[in-house]
Specification:
The complex is a heterodimer.
Chain A (H helix, E strand, L loop, with lengths): L10 H26 L4 E2 L3 E6 H7 L6 E11 L3 E7 L1 H12 L11 H26 L3 E3 L3 E6 H11 L6 E11 L2 E11 L1 H10 L5
Chain B lengths: L3 E3 L4 E6 L3 E7 L3 E7 L4 E7 L8 H4 L7 H14 L7 E7 L15 H15 L4 E6 L5 E6 L5 E5 L3 E4 L1
Parallel strand pairs in B: 1-3, 6-7
Antiparallel strand pairs in B: 2-5, 3-8, 4-5, 4-6, 8-9, 9-10
The chains are: A alpha+beta, B alpha+beta.
């Protein structure tokens, strides 16, 4: 029986998604390390299937200001991916790449935006590659669209798009450590349900 | 003492003076504030999508998600609280486009379409819109006071202002 929405995922299927998240995070850490030109350690990522309200709460409440990077997935897997960078993570990137300190999001200039966009791009590609490699599927990823605002307002974009499927999304929380800095980033993976079925099918998971 | 009542996403609520309604972080969603100044009854509805007619599978379970069904429910709830539809005025906010370049996907202009749907529904119910703060590209938190019908908009990038 094919899945109709994310809440129908069974424990084995959730494990598959966790594994994809693990590999994706590993890839992303490698990319991040080469971009920042220093070692990056990762904690085991937390992966959960959550509804939008819980995601907003986990991100520090609806009014918390964060950087959001939105990617459209096309090809064999369609859907969306959203990269959320908290202030500490944005600071780590800007400090290393541009030598800037980030005290407030209001200070980010065009150069800073461009740097965050590029980091997001590389890390998102690392995630998507993990899925592509595991499944042999072809996945195209769009150029990122950036927004710095309240996280609740940002999340309304995927929430609206997927309102007909359900209220749940795949939430991956990564903790990266580099030098004395520790930074958290979150990834929302929102494949269309058809695409999710395809992924499971490719991996030989009974559905 | 007034208390503040939170309205979630795809949710609505009604209060009487001196209470205040708030809905956080409107992005492409639209917040509709209705007010009966005579009875000092205020209502706030936070809708996500323009029309319940496009999605028959979810509309029955979640009427508050849609502009058409959500506003109709809000009006009913306010009437039960003593308000009269002929006295109602509307102030609306939200319907932003948070991500500028997403114009190629199905969600292009969803904020704009939400605003159009909200206006059409209010027009159909003969409720005049006396203030609006819609569109553009920033998130909004919306407060609405039942004491005086003032709508306060807060943005993390632009400060705050009232209508």
């Amino acid at each position: 029986m094919a899945l109709k929405d994310y809440s129908e995922l069974n424990p084995i299927q959730l494990d598959v998604l966790r594994e994809i998240g693990n590999i994706g995070t590993g890839n992303a850490a490698t990319s991040l390390a080469s971009m920042l030109a220093k070692p990056v350690n990762i904690q085991v990522p937390k992966i959960s299937i959550l509804d939008f309200d819980t995601v907003t709460a986990n991100l520090g409440g609806p009014e918390n200001m964060i950087v959001g990077l939105l990617f459209a997935l096309q090809g064999d897997v369609t859907g969306m991916m959203m990269f959320l960078l908290q202030k500490d993570f944005s600071h780590m990137v800007l400090n290393t790449l541009l030598g800037q300190s980030l005290h407030s999001f209001h200070e980010i200039d065009e150069m800073g935006i461009s740097a965050l966009q590029e980091i997001g791009n590389i890390m998102a590609a690392a995630y998507v590659n993990a899925i592509a490699q595991l499944t042999g599927m072809v996945i195209d990823i769009s150029v990122p669209d950036i927004c710095i605002d309240m996280c609740g307002a940002m999340l309304s974009v995927p929430a609206i798009h997927f309102a007909n499927i359900g209220d749940k999304i795949i939430f991956i929380e990564d903790q990266f450590e580099s030098d004395e800095l520790s930074a958290v980033s979150q990834i929302l993976l929102i494949p269309e349900v058809d695409a999710l079925n395809q992924i499971m099918l490719r991996l030989g998971i009974e559905i | 003492m007034s208390k503040t009542v939170t309205v979630g996403i795809a949710d609505l609520n009604v209060v009487k003076a001196p209470d205040i309604l708030v809905t956080y972080a409107l992005g492409s969603c639209v917040g509709i504030c209705l007010y009966d100044a005579r009875m000092k009854v205020a209502g706030l509805s936070h809708i996500m999508l323009p029309s319940s007619k496009q999605m028959s599978n979810v509309c029955a379970s979640q009427p508050m998600k849609f502009a058409d069904t959500g506003i109709a429910m809000l009006v009913q709830k306010m009437e039960r609280a003593g308000a009269r539809r002929v006295n109602m005025t509307a102030k609306i906010a939200g319907g932003a486009q948070m991500f500028a370049a997403m114009s190629t996907t199905a969600i292009a202009n969803i904020g704009e379409r939400n605003v159009i749907a909200v206006k059409a529904m209010l027009n159909q119910l003969h409720i005049p819109i006396v203030a609006e703060d819609c569109g553009k590209n920033y998130g909004r938190t919306q407060y609405f006071s039942a004491s005086d019908g003032v709508m306060l908009i807060k943005s993390v990038t632009r400060g705050q202002w009232t209508y």
